């Protein structure tokens, strides 16, 4: 019989989203008329911006002509999209990122997992706790960890707890690590790093020859003009960081699929024989071998994000969700809860009330307010005692959910 990848068997089974689904299903079977509002899973709810739809319709019509037909495109993305991204997302903020360093893809989830293809087996890896589960599980699947312990923590990983006491900004590791996952604005805590805080990480990485994988999927939600959107706003980051970005959350592309990864030229890793190797060349080779690019139609849709109309529409979308976040913060505070996040990110991170753990608070909200959120413990052991509500929903649902929570 064929052998399976035993690393998959190390994954903690039946956790978080399946468990939420199970509890919601059991509740709605017992209470079929209870109107449930889901503020749990981090998916957007508002329609695609008109500029993107118009561009994609135009691209479909082009594809219907012999002259306008596009077959396989460049694996790295079309030059016009890479140019638009480099200019608007990076150069306009003073980051020296060129179009050639941008790899267009069908998602940051895949890129942040696939990047392990070009990284060695012996790296010491640091993740925050709580964390976006993809970073951990992709390392488990790739055989870069040991087994999970009773707390769900995998052998070989360095967990950096982020809690209210450190403002949800990960402390630097005590010893030396080689690979660090950072996500700002953060999913799930909604925290964001200042330039000074990011600089500490860049300095650590440079001093320790480490690589930072920087997930900026939520950069569009930053409201404070002083805060960095890209790690390349920090001097030295080109020598130690790869950045992931996505059109999923800013432009509502979660179902349309387009993202990008920045691999700076001159960013090096080490081969087993000590030789220095350029990561750009390895990632380029990986993409050319295993990936055939994002559809022409979708790339035209993503390009439209950078048009004047697209910029205005994306800004309005983000503002809409951030108003939801403000309502959630305000109402939960009025209900006597301690809340974090929700100011530079679409997630509000709630401290569960005395005597209730994350799942206890989940059951309480589901049972009494028919509101579904996400237990913090599902994102890691240090998430225990916290709970995530997402601002991705209609205004009516957010207001109704808050009304119910306040009247508990
Ligand atoms: C939603 C999200 C992404 C985006 O993933 P896509 O695959 O591009 O949709 C990336 N990172 C984090 C932390 C996210 O929450």
* Rg computed from alpha carbons, rounded to a whole number of angstroms: 21 Å
The CATH topology name of the largest domain reads: Aspartate Aminotransferase, domain 2
Task: Give a count of the beta strands, DSSP E runs of length 2 or more.
Answer: 15
Counting DSSP H or I runs of 4 or more residues, the number of helices is 11
Separation, N- and C-terminal Cα atoms = 56 Å
Helix percentage: 25-40%
Structural class: alpha/beta
Describe the protein's architecture and organization.
- By secondary structure, the protein is α/β, with parallel strands linked by helices.
- The protein has 2 domains: 11-47 and 309-407, Aspartate Aminotransferase, domain 1 (Alpha-Beta Complex), CATH 3.90.1150; 53-306, Aspartate Aminotransferase, domain 2 (3-Layer(aba) Sandwich), CATH 3.40.640.10.
- The chain has helices spanning 16-30, 50-63, 79-90, 108-114, 133-141, 195-208, 279-290, 296-303, 308-334, 358-369, 395-406; strands at 37-38, 102-105, 125-129, 157-161, 179-183, 211-215, 241-246, 259-262, 268-270, 276-278, 338-341, 347-351, 371-372, 374-375, 386-390.
- It has a 7-stranded mixed β-sheet, sandwiched between helices.
- A hairpin with a 5-residue loop joins strand 11 (338-341) and strand 12 (347-351).
- It is globular.
- The N and C termini lie far apart (56 Å).
- The model has no long low-confidence stretch (mean pLDDT 97).
């Amino acid at each position: 019989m064929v052998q399976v990848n035993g690393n998959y068997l190390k994954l903690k089974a039946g956790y978080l989203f399946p468990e939420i689904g199970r509890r919601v299903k059991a509740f709605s079977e017992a209470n079929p008329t209870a109107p449930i509002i889901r503020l749990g899973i981090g998916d957007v709810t508002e329609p695609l911006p008109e500029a993107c739809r118009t561009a994609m319709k135009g691209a479909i019509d082009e594809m219907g002509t012999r002259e306008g037909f596009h077959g396989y495109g460049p694996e790295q993305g079309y030059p016009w999209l890479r140019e638009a991204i480099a200019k608007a997302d990076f150069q306009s903020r003073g980051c020296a990122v060129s179009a050639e360093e941008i790899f267009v893809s069908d998602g940051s989830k895949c890129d942040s997992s696939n990047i392990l293809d070009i990284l060695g087996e012996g790296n010491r890896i640091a993740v925050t706790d709580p964390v976006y589960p993809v970073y951990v599980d992709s390392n488990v699947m790739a055989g870069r960890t040991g087994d999970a312990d009773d707390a769900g923590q995998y052998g070989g990983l360095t967990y950096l707890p982020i809690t209210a006491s450190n403002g949800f900004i990960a402390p630097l590791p005590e010893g030396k690590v080689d690979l660090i996952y950072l996500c700002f604005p953060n999913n799930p805590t909604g925290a964001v790093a200042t330039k000074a805080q990011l600089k500490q990480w860049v300095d650590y990485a440079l001093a320790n020859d480490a690589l930072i994988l920087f997930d900026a999927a939520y950069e569009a939600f930053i409201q404070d003009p002083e805060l960095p959107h890209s790690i390349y706003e920090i001097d030295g980051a080109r020598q130690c960081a790869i950045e992931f970005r996505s059109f999923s959350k800013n432009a509502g592309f979660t179902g349309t699929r387009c993202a990008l990864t920045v691999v700076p030229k001159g960013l090096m890793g080490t081969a087993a024989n000590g030789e220095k190797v350029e990561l750009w060349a390895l990632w380029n080779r990986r993409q050319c071998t295993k990936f055939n690019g994002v559809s022409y139609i979708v790339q035209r849709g993503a390009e439209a994000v950078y048009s004047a109309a697209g910029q205005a529409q994306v800004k309005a979308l983000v503002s809409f969700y951030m108003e939801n976040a403000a309502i959630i913060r305000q109402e939960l505070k009025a209900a006597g809860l301690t809340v974090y996040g929700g100011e530079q990110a679409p997630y509000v991170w709630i401290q569960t009330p005395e005597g209730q753990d994350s799942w206890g608070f989940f059951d309480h909200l589901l049972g009494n307010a028919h509101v579904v959120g996400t237990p913090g413990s599902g994102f890691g052991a240090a998430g225990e005692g916290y709970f995530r509500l997402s601002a991705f929903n209609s205004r009516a649902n957010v207001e109704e959910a808050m009304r119910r929570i306040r009247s508990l």
